[in-house]
Amino acid sequence: MLRVLLAGAGPFVDGLQPHDAHQAPHAVRASKGAVVNTASVAGLGLRSSSLAYAASKAGLINMTTNLARALAPDARVNAVAPGFVETAWTKNWPAERQASSRARSLMQRGSKPEDIADVIIFLCAGTSMINGETIKVDGGLVL
Question: For labelling, which of 42, 74, 90, 133 has a CA lying 20 to 30 Å from the CA of 110?
Fold first, then answer.
């Protein structure tokens, strides 16, 4: 699981090695664009249902920071870290688990996929000075 979740971060990192991260693929640098990884609050130390999942998301957050260093100033790399998201998968959770997840959020509700998408769009197109950051989209769950 750990390998799959980290490897899924993007094929553009395949050629990067710790000692030559400055040699990021030309297409990413030439894009002058943005990369946004999808992490999780589990990667920030919030309790998770899976050790491998939490570890992979922590690794993705670390990779985001290091790729931001490697690709700057040509491209920006950030991550979003969702908390409880109301999806078809979480809809099948027991009612008590859903209620508990909502209650732990300061907003008293789960995020919707659109909430996550809004932040991704902002990081891609709405700013040019945010780089190497992981933005929590959790309604205050981690606070």
Answer: 133
Which range is least confidently modeled, 20-34, 37-51, 107-121? 20-34
Asked if residue 20 has pLDDT above 80, the reply is: no
The alpha carbon of 19 is separated from its chain's Cα centroid by a whole number of angstroms, namely 24
User: Could you tell me the domains of the chain?
Assistant: 2-137 (3.40.50.720)
What pLDDT, on a 0 to 100 scale, did the predictor assign at position 19?
A: 47
CA-based torsion, 35, 130, 60, 13: positive or negative: positive
CB contact at 8 A, 66 and 131: no
Q: Is 44 exposed, middle or buried (CB count within 10 Å of its CB: 0-12, 13-18, 19+)? A: middle
Please state, in angstroms and rounded to a whole number, the distance separating the CA atoms of residues 34 and 50: 29
Active-site annotation holder among 21, 53, 109, 118: 53
Q: Tokens 């991550």 belong to which residue?
A: 79
Cβ atoms < 10 Å from Cβ of 24: 19
Does residue 53 carry a catalytic annotation? yes
Query: What Cα–Cα distance (Å) separates residue 18 from each residue in 13, 21, 45, 87, 137?
Result: 11, 6, 24, 36, 29
